[in-house]
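Title: Prediction job returns without error message
Component: structure pipeline
Severity: low
Priority: P3
Assignee: unassigned

Description:
Job completed but the reporter wants confirmation the result is attached to the right record. Sequence as submitted:
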Amino acid sequence: TDAMINDTPSDPLRMFSISYGGEKTKKLFLRLAGLEGKFHYVVNGAFYSTYGIDQPLNRMTSDPESLKQYNLSPDHTTGGQMEWDRKYFNFSGQFDGLRLDISYTESKQELYFIMPTFSDGNLNKLSSTRLALAYQKKLSDSLNLEASFNYTHITDRYKMNYLSEDFYGMQQIESDAYEVELKSFFTPSNELD
């Protein structure tokens, strides 16, 4: 957090990048940073998306006939079953002794786990939201206080797609974390020598 705030230029900084590649891969990045009076800010955003590989399963196994046990034909491909999307957003701001950080990340990834998937693919969605608020106050030349609050929420959801169109399985884990801190910083006087 401090690295982002301390990296804030006095003149506004604007960065933008976009690219496109194989497997329908797209990337986008945006960064804004600046200083308005006593207010420092940094905003970052990113997006990544890919269709993933599209290859026949019979090239990935030594026994293509074994695919029939999963209700798949030997010419079945991974097309549309290996997609991956990622998103990221972050805001950091500081005004006098008050600091605020907000971030959100999300990843949706289709993958193979144990056996081949049937139609849409197995989907793993992982998202995380973070909020951090801190206030620092200088009480004297030798004593500073800082109070901070952090909150994090994480969701991990896995949707399974095996054996037939009618099969549906899902597993989900969620967690919340809270943290409160009160810290004091003491700087001894040079006159104590």
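Comment from assignee: result matches the submitted record. Residues 1-6 have pLDDT under 50 and may be disordered.
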